[in-house]
């Protein structure tokens, strides 16, 4: 897989994938939502949504605000700190609205495609509360590369996932170890 792809779905969680699409400050370097149309493309590409919603400018702004709240709540968990009350309040208020309605289509799960965008945001917010508010949180972690801040839920059975992605960090670290060994220096871990 070429890196970086346009959108990164390594989170093992809708809310974590949503939170890691860019953001304010230094995170604007990896902004992948430049317009409502980008956000609609992201939803269509998301393994958890798989449809292209219509997104207004106001809804786009709401999505970006929710993303900040999710990012800081996730980082608080990584850093073993209490999440911010304002962030939690926004996530809860978003989750309180109606969420997406699932249906069977040809025997497969899909969401109602005529959904209002607020339903998409509610689904994202509800998944975040489920992730951070249940034992699933024990599988929530940060990439083992110290220069990478991507987070994920380890859904693997053994629960030993270390990297956001082999393509991005796993291989880089393997190469660093290999080079260190070749130089007779094994201090790189
Ligand atoms: Zn990484």
TrEMBL record:
Gene3D superfamilies: Jann2411-like domain
Domain of life: Bacteria
Domain annotation Zinc finger CGNR: ranges: 139-181
PANTHER family: BLL6575 PROTEIN (PTHR35525)
Name of the protein in question: CGNR zinc finger domain-containing protein
């Amino acid at each position: 897989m070429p890196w970086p792809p346009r959108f990164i779905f390594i989170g093992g969680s809708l809310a974590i994938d949503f939170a890691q699409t860019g953001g304010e400050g230094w995170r604007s370097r990896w902004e992948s939502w430049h317009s409502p149309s980008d956000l609609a493309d992201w939803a269509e590409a998301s393994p958890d949504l798989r449809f292209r919603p219509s997104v207004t400018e106001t809804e786009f702004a709401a999505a970006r605000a929710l993303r900040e709240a999710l990012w800081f709540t996730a980082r608080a968990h990584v850093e073993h700190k209490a999440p911010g009350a304002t962030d939690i309040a926004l996530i809860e208020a978003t989750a309180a609205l109606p969420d997406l309605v699932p249906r069977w289509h040809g025997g497969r799960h899909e969401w109602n495609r005529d959904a209002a965008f607020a339903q998409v945001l509610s689904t994202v917010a509800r998944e975040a509360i489920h992730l951070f508010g249940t034992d699933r949180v024990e599988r929530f972690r940060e990439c083992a590369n110290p220069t990478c801040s991507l987070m994920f839920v380890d859904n693997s059975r053994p629960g030993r996932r270390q990297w956001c992605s082999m393509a991005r960090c796993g291989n880089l670290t393997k190469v660093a170890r290999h080079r260190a060994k070749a130089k007779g220096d094994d201090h790189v871990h």
